[in-house]
User: Fold this.
Amino acid sequence: MSERLLEVTDLEVYYGVINALKGISFHVDKGEIVSLIGANGAGKTTTLHTITGLIRPRKGSIVYKGTDIGHIPAHKIVSMGMVHVPEGRRVFQNLTVYENLLMGAYSQKNKAEIAANLENVFKQFPRLEERRRQLAGTLSGGEQQMLAMGRALLANPELIVLDEPSMGLSPLLVSEIFEIIKSFREAGKTVLLVEQNAKKAMSISDRVYVLETGSITADGAASELINDERIKKAYLGE
Amino acid sequence: MEFLTTFVNGLSLGGIYAMIALGYTMVYGIAKMLNFAHGDIIMVGGYTILLFLFVNPIVAIIAAMVFCMILGIVVEKVAYKPLRGASPLAVLITAIGVSYLLQSLAQMIFGSAPKYIVIADLGILKIGSLSIGYNTIITLVCSILVMVALSLFVKFSKTGRAMVAVSEDKGAAQLMGINVNRIIMITFAIGSALAALASVFFLLKAPTMTPTFGSLPGIKAFTAAVIGGIGSIPGAMIGGILLGVIECFAQAVPAISPYTDAIEFSILIILLLVKPSGLLGKVRREKV
Assistant:
């Protein structure tokens, strides 16, 4: 069996009295791309925010690389090797592209490693290098998404958590973004992906979890679920 | 010549206002709160100088800056941090409470009568018919140095960039591994040290200190920060200097000098009517 990187068990999250996650369990193994799909409001973003420490669970455990991280503050989780690319990119508009990338390396101490990672990011995203002195707020949506992903790579992650990376992008860019996600795996990284574009997400994933109003209602190998009649109808528009 | 003297005095006073306004604006930008106790830190700085002046003036100034830094951090930890996520009104009222607390403590310890605190008698520079106090020149030079240093710090240091990141998006900053609480603490420390420095320059101008001394400069500097666009560091500098120059010119004209404060606050009101976000402030886009 492959190495377990992230194990979430019986996770319950509340916003006040609203029960956003009703005891979900899932796991991500090393080297996998795992997708979490579901409609708006199903709890996908909440799940990611809870895993990376922005929201605290009421119940359940989040074990990352053998450590329970349920009560570790968000800023410390980054240096453990799990980095979260939030929905809507959230690049720092008032910082330049280069400064944004440096913020990604905030938790990193090894200067030589930061420089090497920076070089790799510029190699993978040449457009970011061209615009390194530009304020991030002046970039297009696709460029901002690339910056957000490049910024995450500078944290030297093992597990990259991506929230709606294709949101609001043109079909051409969407394909490009999914190619980048595939390249993460080729670089030895593990990916947990939340997507509205279920079809695309399933096409690059190893396994898929379907989230419906705070509960996981289906899970399995992406190659199987993609042929599941119910999934097809609800999420693939067929 | 008189015009030039007034202008230099205005720039110098503006430099002091800018230093205080920087504390307001940085705390607002990063912790999203109006720290109305910020002006009273000036007063605490003044009394700290009084306590340590027997050693020597430099030691007293450093002691005041260090003590105010610690006070700023403690106030943030004890009074504001527990309210993070509470309504802005609760935080605002707490800040007013802290302000009264500091004033009352100072009154208990030092009494309400003014204390004379002479840091140094620097004399007056005379070039022809131009006469400017050395204190004015020192204030101007120091405040420029402070502003340049702070700008460089924010732009080029890792912590400074983290401050920009936190002021823009706390959540995303956390996801980069930035300890937001630590950045807020550093911001309070810097702001309070600048307030202590401001008290040095006020005392060089006029060597008296009372427990309520910080109120008016505090409000003026807040006005400066709002004129410049609250949250904006260059805005606070411009706003502060603008306000200082306006104040000195208003005081130089006998017919309007009694209305100096009114003029300053009227300018704020007019500016806010024309440009609600201040000179360099950004229009906030509320995200849903």
